[in-house]
Each structure stands twice: as C-alpha cells, then as structure tokens.
Amino acid sequence: MKTENLDLISLNQELTPLKAIEIVQWTQDNFSKGLVMSTSFGIQSAVMLHMVTQIIPDIPVIWIDTGYLPPETYRFAEELTKKLKLNLQIYQSDLSPARMEALYGKLWQQDDLKALNRYDYLRKVEPMNRALKELNAKAILAGLRREQTDFRQQLQTINLQGEQYKVLPILSWNAKNIYYYLQEYNLPYHPLFDQGYVTVGDWHSSRSLMAEDTNERLTRFRGLKQECGLHLPVAA
Length: 236
Prior knowledge:
By secondary structure, the chain is α/β, with parallel strands linked by helices. Helices cover 36% and strands 11% of the residues. The chain has helices spanning 8-15, 20-31, 45-55, 71-84, 97-104, 113-134, 175-184, and strands spanning 35-39, 60-64, 87-91, 139-141, 158-161, 164-167.
C-alpha cells in the first residue's frame, strides 16, 4: 500500500474494530521503514512500549527529555529501557534550561498561556520536530487515549499530523484495560502512581490528583491547558 495521501476515512473504518496488537502489526506492515514511536515514560508508558516492541523490537523510540523531569521519571526510563531493550532516541532542546531561564524567566511560573506555550515549544515541540526529520519518520505509534483530554476525544485510530501519520492502537482503552495489561505482563506503573499521580510531566507542572479535581488533566499545567503541543495539529 502506498502511504502517500491515504484514505483516512476508509482506513479508520478498517482499523478501529481491530485489537490493539493487530493495529500495531498493520502499522508495521505498512510503514516498516519509516516507523517510529514516541514515549513520555509517563504513568502507563510500559503498556505501549511492551506491546510495540514485541512486534518491532528495534523500533526507534523517541523520548523528549525537557531537562525538568522528576527524578522518578529518569529512573523509570532507565528501568524500562533495560527491561525492554529499547532502541531509545533521546532528544532535547538546543536551549539549555539555564539559558532558557536567563532569557525568558521561569516560563511555567507565569500565569500566562502564551508563556506556557513558549515553554512547550522550546522544550518539547521543536525537539520532536527535529527528531521526526532526522529519523525520516513517516508514521508514529503513540499511546494516546480518548478519555485523557477533550482534544483526544476527537482523534481517530490513524490521523495525519503535519507530515506524519499518527497511529493510536489503544485510543479506546480505559484505566481498567491498562491495569489488566500491566498485570498480565508484569509491567510497572510509573513510581509516582503510588503517590496519587494519574499523569506526570515536568516536576514543576505536575501534581497528584485531588478529591475536588473533575478531570485528571487539572493536575498538569495548573489546569491552564490540557495539551503540551506534541499531539496538536499545529504547535501552539
């Protein structure tokens, strides 16, 4: 199958009923030479990392290291990289944290959506764009789920984002599906899960879930935004 100008409507009708592992296999069959996956080493990241590497052991795994991740995330990344023998490709901003703070201040402390968007572009979006270009990516496997954010509720199994197709095998999964998969394959949650975190990013912009929270994404970015820009059609 030619991967240029795919008929996404027909493909989504074909792919959506399939099991997650079948979607991964379809993606490998159709994008083998230009396929990568992304990970944040977040709360549930072991699911996709395990599922995909069972079929594609050497797939390039892109990890955007912002320089502000919690110590637990760095240790979790080390653990999973060794356990699953990941072909990890680490990308970072060309702007060091110290230099960024000197030029722009601590952007995450400013109650300003524009400042947060600048932070996300500098530390996450630009490095990801560079990674996709350098790795000649045609398609990306990612572990997004519909129930996570308002934006993700409108996503389909296969989407076009910029110049790459983004395939989401576990888009329809819920927390119970995640739990059962982790249990079946003896895989770990992120260590901060035991401290009440349901999603985790940078140390300064993540907190544990509280009783009054109506959405898990309120624990990120002080509730000012749900997405960091990596999965949006156009970077903020």
